[in-house]
Fold this protein.
Amino acid sequence: MGKTVLMPKLGLTMTKGRIVEWKKREGESVKEGEVIAIIESEKITSEVKAPTSGILLKTYVPKGSYANVGQIIAYIGEPGEKPPELAVEVIEAPKPTAPPPLEAPPPPITKVAVRATPRARRLADERGVDLTKIVGSGPGGLITEEDVLREIEKREKYTLTGIRVKEHLPVTPIREVIAKRMVESLQTTAQVTLTIEAQVDALVELREELLKTMEVRVTYTDILVKAVATLLKEHPLLNSILEEDKIKILDDINIGVAVALDHGLIVPVIKNANKKHLKQIAEEARELARKAREGLLTPDEVSQGTFTITNLGMFSIDAFTPIINPPEAAILGVGRIVKKPVVIEDNIRIGNVMWLSLTFDHRIMDGHVAAKFLQDLAQILNDKNKLKKYLEL
Amino acid sequence: MSVREITFAEALNEALRQEMERDENVIVMGEDVGVYGGVFGVTKGLLEKFGFDRVIDTPISEAGFIGTAVGAAAMGLRPVVELMFVDFFGVAMDQIYNQAGKMRYMFGGKIKLPLTIRTTIGGGLSAAAQHSQVLYSIFAHVPGLKVVVPSTPYDAKGLLISSIRDDNPVMFFEHKLLYATKGPVPEEPYTIPLGKADVKREGSDVTLIGLALTVHHALKAADILAKEGISAEVVDPRTIVPFDKETILKSARKTGRVVIVDEDYDRCGFASWAAAIIADEAFEYLDAPIKRVTTPNVPIPFSPPLENHILPNADKVVNTVKSIFKRK
């Protein structure tokens, strides 16, 4: 008697998952604990492991389709066993809500009669080759297997624009998610980036003190998470979500912190950061970063963000144009802290400066609203008393 | 025992002699099979060795002696009947397809019918329309008959022994132009299972399927094609019923191109049927249309140039293969 494989529930908010890839085909033998599928829920990808050893007799949900949590997605049994027939509900991928891209609509597709052998068609189908682009070398211009093989070779050795290729890297599931979300973000919102050079002597001093007094090693990002969370209460539009014809001002302030990994980017979320002590934030941020590096984040830990902070200071970047993490309203890009000549009361002194880059959604707010937030933040970081107040120390 | 080079006719003669020695129920009947030794010499010497009781010369009465053989087989003998030319089957067809072919079925399997009908096929001898046909497709078309078509002396001996030992009626077709061909044949008796195709030459670009003489056309064509860089595989089904579908499909899937070379008439013939099976079960592997090199549906002419014009040959095979390879 075999076992069914269910769509796992990876987090509290997960209701359905998408099959990104079947790692095993129907008829292949699997060992207990072996990865049989890659699934994706909202922002995270995860592995589905075989609950038992046997033959993967049946997969019920095709690649790219969604299944509800708890739904049977596969059946593992013994050779010759008949997998149960199930009326499986396959959820179609949701239609993208993005408005049509701002390019000329493609010309209407005219069906071109292609003369190709069955063998050529099969190969073209398997390898995703467009037969209409091939000139056949067979009798009467018939496209043969050899023609398709030549096209595949050409495609592998050259780009579509005819540039020679050195090697191919697969688009990993996480890369695919990032690509999809970033394009979606830029296509569906009106993003503007503001930058400010903040004088941050107060920030640097306070952190030096905290390193001595607090048992947790507090990072600049931790301090910014707490300060921004507190400040967001005064700037509700920056902590809002636009849904249909309403701008919904959010009660919770959940700060996402972008973590760079070798193979991609992930944004764990510190929930209710405004209500947490700086020490707690530092501990949580460190734990989430570790889980991110080890691939152990759960969907709950990367969802429900309301504002994101991304820091490229460690790479000596000053300013950049971060892309909003949808459906949030804004994202703060943090640059390096560097000593520079600064003018204070007509005297040139050496001071610590840091660039802040704020991208906001112009559909939700106008430039001056975002500018005020950024100005306030810069002032807080340059005033130790204010900073302590916003850090609730 | 050793392997010698003997002719196709000698191989058949040896098979008959060895089977008659092995089993006294094996008898031989037909026109001129005794004193004359068969018009193509296949039964030579059998009368002297086994006597008039087991080697029976019959009148020119195909319906009569084939009907006699059907009855003898039903009663326990193992007759091997010679029908001098397949073209003559018409007068005896009821005995063959409705009596021999159906009897075991009609009696609910309660009798065996171990009958072998040997007959000669093929053109190329200017023997005209009534002595040059192939016609095995007709026998393969009706249920109840096994159809064996050897192409080499080795296959001829092994398949004839298997046919004689088979408990069902077998039609055994011998191409007249093959009788004098020589090949290695072991002296001892051996069998080749009915329904097992033989890959006569391995290749990778095109599959040539032939029977009897057309296997040799295909092999010659493969030699010519090899010089032009086309690697042809030659598959000989050896028996049409039962048919070794798997070997043919395996080859078709490998090469992706199939040319069937068949001396029988084109219409509703073996080549069309084999092509249909390949199209049905190996469609997505085909890299060219399945082609047939066959004999058109006309009476076989007496005139040598005309006869040569309509029969399959190696050049026709070569040209057909080329036609499915490159843009014209």
About this structure: Residues 198-323 of chain B form a domain with the Rossmann fold fold (CATH 3.40.50.920).
